[in-house]
Amino acid sequence: MLICALVGAILWNLLTWYVGLPSSSSHALVGGLCGAAIAAAHGDLSAVVWARAPAAGKHWWDGGGILYKVVVPMVVSPVLGLVIAFVVMGGLYFVLRNWRPLTVARVFGKLQLFSSAYMGFSHGTNDAQKTMGLIALALVAATKAGAFDQLPDWLSFLRTQEGADPKDQRIALWIKVLCAVTMAIGTAAGGWRIIKTLGHKLVRLQPVHGFAAETAGATVLFTTAEMGMPVSTTHVITTSVMGVGAAKGLNALKWSIVERILWAWLLTLPATAGVGYALTRLMQVAGWIL
Fold first, then answer.
1. 237 near 214, Cβ under 8 Å?
2. Residue 66 carries which DSSP code?
3. Cβ proximity of 30 and 74 under 8 Å
4. Residue 166 — pLDDT band, cuts 50, 70, 90?
5. How far is Cα 20 from Cα 13, in angstroms, rounded to an integer?
6. Is the pLDDT of residue 86 over 90?
7. Domain that holds residue 256
8. How many domains does the chain have?
9. Among 106, 89, 105, 93, residue whose Cα is nearest residue 244
């Protein structure tokens, strides 16, 4: 089931990457998992926790299920990225109104090193955790099922026992390193298509704009990570870029690109859920899983 969910997410990510649209890997994973879970339960929709209200005295974000942990953050976090970036960029325009353009470019060309590092760190606190969690989940499931019982000693590191409290599941160091290296390689190898869309097609960015967008996006990501909300890095940084562009002027944004991005976001969950469902059903028909 987990493999079907991952394949659904990967196919969607490759498709949106190929056409140069920034889509959410996080939501692709969630959609794939939901579709695969429903198929594994033979169409029982209750296999997915749609909404679980927070306990008395808790905040709304402490609730569980797709509604509180995916849908609400999916809407709120991009809006926050847009608003914060707009305010930050507007403030910078006011403060820097008497600066020479060359001075602004030089200063913020250096400051952007710090804002991009902040963005990278916040990215790790959110997206990397999901990837590590999926790997740990697969290893725990395989260990419980006895799939690793006959492994040679040199592969014993794959055996992962479930923690007493799933929220405190221990993540092995090698998983953390593997995720960090893989994400870095993927960004370096294939990120240019998305960067070109955001930094050239959507709106023309200079270092000061990149600084504002990265600072706003990273702040939203870091805050939501502290709240335990798995939001989309892609959605947040994209709307942050939109906010910066809107501060320049609404005509600075390419609205046809904005429309294509929004359609990709809306289709992510149903598309990946459909693929995850279909693949799981095919494996059931083939007799590979029950």
1. yes
2. H
3. no
4. low
5. 10
6. yes
7. 2-285
8. 1
9. 89
Look up residue 189 and give its amino acid. A
Strand partners, 64: 52
Torsion angle in degrees (nearest 10) through CA of 32, 37, 43, 45:
-90
Asked if the model's pLDDT at residue 104 lies above 80, the reply is: yes
Whether 55 and 62 have beta carbons less than 8 Å apart is answered as: yes
Nearest partner of 212 among 102, 125, 111, judged by Cα: 111
Q: Do the domain assignments include residue 213?
A: yes
- Measured CA to CA, the distance from residue 224 to residue 30 in angstroms comes to 17
Q: How far apart are CA 57 and CA 54, in angstroms?
A: 8
Rounded-to-integer distance, Cα 84 and Cα 250, Å: 16
Q: 224-247 burial string, b = 16+ CB within 10 Å, else e? A: bbeeebbbbbbbbbbbbbbbbbbb
Residue 218 lies in a domain: yes
Between 192 and 248, the more confident residue is: 248
Q: Look up residue 22 and give its amino acid.
A: P
Q: The tokens of 177 are what?
A: 């390193």
Q: Which of 250, 246, 244, 254 is nearest to 92 (CA)?
A: 244
Residue 290 within any structural domain of the chain: no
Q: Is residue 56 part of a domain?
A: yes
Per the model's pLDDT, the better-predicted residue between 240 and 196 turns out to be: 240
